[in-house]
Amino acid sequence: MLDSEVRRWSAMTCEQLISELHNLQAYEVELDSKKYQVEVELLENTDKYVHVLVAVDDGSLPASISPLSNTFICSKPQHSPISADARLRPG
Predict the structure, then answer these.
(1) Residue 52 DSSP symbol
(2) CA distances from 71 to 41, 45, 61, 74, 83 (A)
(3) Cα–Cα distances in Å, from 79 out to 9, 14, 42, 69, 82?
(4) CA–CA dist 51, 54 (Å, integer)
(5) Cβ count within 10 A of residue 7
(6) Would you list the domain boundaries of the chain?
(7) Which CATH architecture has domain 2-76?
(8) CA 4/CA 60 separation, integer angstroms
(9) Rounded CA gap, 43 and 78, in Å?
(10) Which one of 6, 62, 72, 85 is most buried, counting C-beta atoms within 10 A?
(11) Which helix (H) or strand (E) holds 16?
(12) What pLDDT is attached to residue 63?
């Protein structure tokens, strides 16, 4: 379950993640008639990347106290500045 949720969220662009995760996302999913609690949180939003936490538990103790979790990094596109000289030179 954790792997599929990480795949789902990590497939999004950085812009989508920032938009979706302006607040903690907590929801329930069902797999094989078993319910799981999922929490997804934006940990960092820097100029270069977005860092996201995905945590899953089945609602039981002690799993809900220390859920299975994973994080991933979404790198933002880096634009290299073009100097005025480079733009004026013929190609």
Answers:
(1) E
(2) 9, 13, 22, 10, 37
(3) 24, 15, 23, 32, 9
(4) 10
(5) 11
(6) 2-76
(7) 2-Layer Sandwich (3.30)
(8) 20
(9) 20
(10) 6
(11) helix 14-20
(12) 81
Q: What is the C-alpha to C-alpha distance for residues 24 and 6, in angstroms, rounded to an integer?
A: 15
- Is 90 strand, coil or helix? coil
pLDDT of residue 88: 54
Identify the three-state secondary structure at position 71.
Answer: strand
Using the 8-state DSSP alphabet, how is residue 64 labeled? Answer: T
Can you give the pLDDT at residue 56?
Answer: 97
Distance CA 66, CA 73 (A): 22
∠ Cα 12 13 17 (to 5°): 75
- 30-82 pLDDT per residue, tens: 999 999 999 999 999 999 999 999 999 998 888 888 999 999 999 998 876 66
**Per the confidence metrics, is the pTM higher than 0.90?**
no
